[in-house]
Design goal:
Radius of gyration: 26 Å
Structural class: alpha+beta
Helix content: 25-40%
Strand content: 5-15%
Distance between the termini: 70 Å
Low-confidence stretches: none
Mean pLDDT: 93
Order of helices and strands: HHHHHEEEE
Shape: extended
Number of strands: 4
Amino acid sequence: MSDTPLPLSTRLWFAWVCFFRTLFDADFAARAWSIRPALPAPEPAPSTDSALQLLGLLQREGRLIDFLEQDIAGFADAEVGAAARAVHEGARKALHAHLTLEPVRTEEEGVKVTLTEGYDAMTIKLSGNVSGTAPFTGVLRHRGWQATSLSLPVAVKGHDVKVICPAEVEI
């Protein structure tokens, strides 16, 4: 058995043949069905509950979603600025209460940095005229952020995290 990946054209042809063979050949379908347990199970999708819960906290404390969903084109800059201050204050409060952040890079923005061979491409994004291989020398434009801890409230049983903010009806 070869571990060499098959080209796309071969896979398409093979899928087509297997589809019709499974459809019209009961013995082939039974043999294919019997090897199913030996196939690797698909990876479960990561839970979005934490992200939705944090978004709900940012909405509750800073009305972040209301601000982002509002069409601000017709508002004066001073009105937008005043609203942004309120959103910033509340969202920042929620963020600091539940998430600990650290910069990815400790240098000040605007300084020259050198990235040696083997730098972590998951934590550093190169921009500008990128060519060749490391080492790279450039200017740090943004230090980046990484979460070092997350502390979310325990959800109440039956709570639907997809409801970021319930509708409000005043009686």
